[in-house]
Amino acid sequence: MKKVFVNGYGSIGSRITSFLKDDPEITVFGIGKYSPDEKVTDAISRGLNVYVPERKLDDFSNYKISGTIESALDECDLVIDAAPGGHGYKNKKNLYEPKNIPAIYQGGESTVGEESVSDLLFNSRANYDHALGKKHVMQGSCNVTGMGRILEPLREKFGNELVRFDVTLVRRWADIEQTEKNVSDTIEMTEKPHHGDDVKLYFGKDAPLYVRAIKVPTRQMHLHIMDIRFKETAPKPSQIHELFADEFGVATLWTAKGTKDIRDYAQNMGFNFTDTNMIHIHANMTTSIGDTVQLMYSDDQTGIVIPENHMLLQAMLFDKSYEEAFAHTESIFHMKEKKQKLQENFAKNN
Ligand SMILES: NC(=O)c1ccc[n+]([C@@H]2O[C@H](COP(=O)([O-])OP(=O)(O)OC[C@H]3O[C@@H](n4cnc5c(N)ncnc54)[C@H](OP(=O)(O)O)[C@@H]3O)[C@@H](O)[C@H]2O)c1
């Protein structure tokens, strides 16, 4: 049984931990906490061992912690870093490399420049095999992962017929559980968003992909507005939708009025953390005009990267083939079933 440590227990770390506990091939050795708050008690009540940085031991004297993060890492086979953006790089230098432990990083880190955590940005749909045998890999962020789920199938099907992709990312302000974060009443423009460059790391550096981003006051998912230009007349919307009928982690919905409808449905259905773990094509919004397809899809910001982390873990820890890893991830996340339920609930009105 392989032992995994999850360093950071926020939106991403708590989700990853929860799913890993359902994986019979893995033991969650423990989680790393940095602030002595109610989440320590919460984690312990869920049966998790909580570890803290050696320098902060005194701050946690009122909690029943299991030891230091430094000592826990000595016992583990792999660490999933779920730290706030930028801290993963510091952890790599100060902890993971000195202890020679393989590590997965999240999308707030970088794969270029001086503070790069890895030369590989993972997207299971595009480059699963590249992660086999790797020691340090970054999982793409939620927006970057979502774009991959659309772009790869399009490229496989239409190849040279494609001319360019123009994408506007409408990003959520904060996550649902980040109650400490105010959602400001403004539309914020993002200068030089990293997402396009990140996608090109797996989609090809010369890919004709142009990305703009804004942030809007909502906690309910991201929405991507994508224009896909073709050399000749663009395919019909139905041909685009057909392409995603059997795609992992892509649901095609017709009657969701907004992103909150989907989140509410996930909550009513008892989906873990109210996540769908996927993107949702808003099929009623797809149009085909001349050489261009206009597409909109929403992206479950917190959920989408969790099965991806699980796929990545299997490549790095067990050297599994894509097919084996996919089947195992599916047995834990039940993505096919969730997709089907979503599609039935938001089916086209006749
Ligand atoms: N939220 C999303 O929708 C989303 C989606 C995709 C990717 N990501 C990426 O995932 C990463 C984590 O984001 P998040 O939203 O989960 O953040 P978050 O909710 O703010 O949680 C961050 C966690 O990291 C812990 N932490 C603080 N300092 C740390 C350190 N030096 N090393 C390790 N952990 C540390 C914090 O512990 P304490 O609470 O104990 O201080 C907290 O539990 C970021 O790279 C982010 O860009 C986020």
From TrEMBL:
Single GO MF descriptor: glyceraldehyde-3-phosphate dehydrogenase [NAD(P)+] (phosphorylating) activity
The keyword Oxidoreductase is assigned to this record: yes
EC number(s) from the headed UniProt entry: 1.2.1.59
Gene: gap
Record: active site: 142 (nucleophile)
Keywords in alphabetical order: Oxidoreductase
Designated name of the protein: Glyceraldehyde-3-phosphate dehydrogenase
InterPro entries reported for this sequence: GlycerAld/Erythrose_P_DH, NAD(P)-bd_dom_sf
